Amino acid sequence: MAQADTGGAGRLGAFVRNSGYLRKWLILGVAIGIIAGLGAVVFFLALRYTTELLLGGLGGYDVPTARGDGNNPGSPGFSRAWAIPVITTLGALVSAAIVAKFAPEARGHGTDDAIEAVHTDPRAIRARVVVVKMVASALTIGSGGSGGREGPTAQISAGFGSLLTRWLDLADDDGRVAVSMGIGSGIGAIFGAPLGGAVLAASIIYRRDFDYRALIPGFITSGTAYAVYGAFLGFEPLFGQLVTNYAFDPAQLPWFVLIGIVSAAIGYLYARTFYATVNLAGRITVPGGAVLKPAVGGLLVGLLALAIPQILSSGYGWVQLAAVESTLLAMPLWIVLVLPVAKIVATSLSIGTGGSGGIFGPGIVIGCFVGAALWRLADLAGAPALPAGPGVFIVLAMMACFGSVAHAPLAVMIMVAEMTGSFSVLPAAMITVGIAYLLIIRTDVGIYQAQRLDRETAAAERAGR
C-alpha cells in the first residue's frame, strides 16, 4: 500500500516516485553513494584500529598491509605466539555473541543476504543489521579471522538502499535496483574500484545474466561512493601498480590457459569447501552453538596461523609482498604452494562456522597465491616465455579465481585491474578469465548461493509467490 503523501517522507517519496528517470536515479544514486562511501570509511577505520589493538597491541604481531592501506611490511614473526590462538578465539566468540543477541542474520559473509533481498523483498534488510555487521566483522577480522572487508560495506550500502525503498515507498523494481547499487558501490568503495563496483551491481545478482537497469545508475552511485571514500582515505589503488607497461606476448598464451584452468579448480575448491563447512556447522547442534562454533573456528584458525601466519586477517599485505619478486622468492616455497588451500580452510573456519566477514577479499588473496605458486614453480623449472616478475601471473589469477566462481567475470576483472593499476594485462585477462568462467559454468558451483540463474528465472519465481 502506498504511503499517504503527508509529512516529509511522504512528500519526498512522492517527489522521487514521480520523477523522471534521470532525476530519480540521480537523487537515489547520490544518496546511496554517499552512505556507501561514508560506511566504507567508518568500517575501514574501525577495522584498522581493532586490528592494531587486538593483533598488534595484545598479540604483538603487526599484520602486513597493502600500499593503499599504509604499506606496512608487518612483523617478521610472532613475539607472543601463545596469544594468537587466544585472540582469534576470543574475537570470534565476542563477535558471534553480539550477532546472536542483536541480529542473527548478520552472521556469515552477508552478501548473499543482500542478494536475496533483491530477489525477494528489497525492503527486508533491517537497519540494525548494518551496525551489528560492522562491529562483528571488525572483531572477527581484527582478531585475525580470515575474512574480507567488503561484506560489511556491501551490507551497509545495501541496507541503506533497502531503507530508502521502505521510507520512500519505492516500487519493488526500483527497490531491487537500489539494493543492487548498494552492493556494488559498497564493494567498489572499500576496494577503490568504482567502475568494477558499478558493473558488479549489474551482474552479481545473476549467474548467467546482467541487470542493465542497475548499470547506469550504478555509475552514479559507485562514482559518488569512491569520491567520498577517497576524500577521507586517498585515491591510490589498493595495491599500487603491480604491473607496469605490460605488452601482450603471444608466446605466453599457454601460461594464460594454464592459469585459467588452475584458477577455476581452486575457485571450485573454495566454494565447495566453504559451503561444506557451512553445512557441517549447521548440522552440529550444541547448546550455545551459534556462539561456540565460530569460537572453535577462531581457535583452529589461530593454531593454523602459528605455522602459516599469512592466513590471518584480510591478507592484502601479503598480496603486496608476493607481487615483488625479491620478497616472493624470500618466502619458503612450501608456504607459497600451500597458501591457497590454507586460506580457503581459514576462511571457511572463520566465516563458514558463523563468523562475520566477507568472502570476496579472501578470494583475491587465494587467487594471488595461485598465480605466485605457478610463477615460482615455472621460474624454478626455467620455463620459457615467463614474464620477468610474478605480477602478471598474480593479477591474472586474482581475476580468474574469484571472477569465475562469483559468476561475475567482467566485474571482477575490472575491479582487480583498478585495485592493482594493471589495465595493461586486460587482453591476457580476457583469455584467462574466459577459460576459468567457461569451466566453472559447467558445474553448479558458485560462491554466492542467493544468485538466480537469470532475469526470467527470477521473474517466474516472484510471479509464483
Secondary-structure blueprint of this entry?
Layout: H1 7-17, H2 21-58, H3 83-102, H4 111-119, H5 127-142, H6 150-167, H7 172-191, H8 194-203, H9 215-233, H10 253-283, H11 289-307, H12 316-322, H13 325-330, H14 333-351, H15 360-381, H16 391-405, H17 409-420, H18 426-440, H19 455-463
Helix pairs in contact: 2-5, 2-6, 2-7, 2-9, 3-5, 3-11, 4-6, 4-7, 5-6, 6-7, 7-8, 7-9, 8-9, 8-17, 10-14, 10-15, 10-16, 10-18, 11-14, 12-15, 14-15, 15-16, 16-17, 16-18, 17-18
Write up what this structure looks like:
The chain is mainly alpha-helical and 465 residues long. The protein folds into 2 domains: 7-238, Clc chloride channel; 250-455, Clc chloride channel (Orthogonal Bundle), CATH 1.10.3080. It contains 19 helices and no strands. It has helices at 7-17, 21-58, 83-102, 111-119, 127-142, 150-167, 172-191, 194-203, 215-233, 253-283, 289-307, 316-322, 325-330, 333-351, 360-381, 391-405, 409-420, 426-440, 455-463. The longest helix is centred in the first third of the chain and has 38 residues, at 21-58. The radius of gyration is 21 Å and the shape is globular. One of its GO terms (molecular function) is chloride channel activity. InterPro entries: Cl-channel_core, ClC, ClC-type_chloride_channel. It comes from Mycolicibacterium chitae.
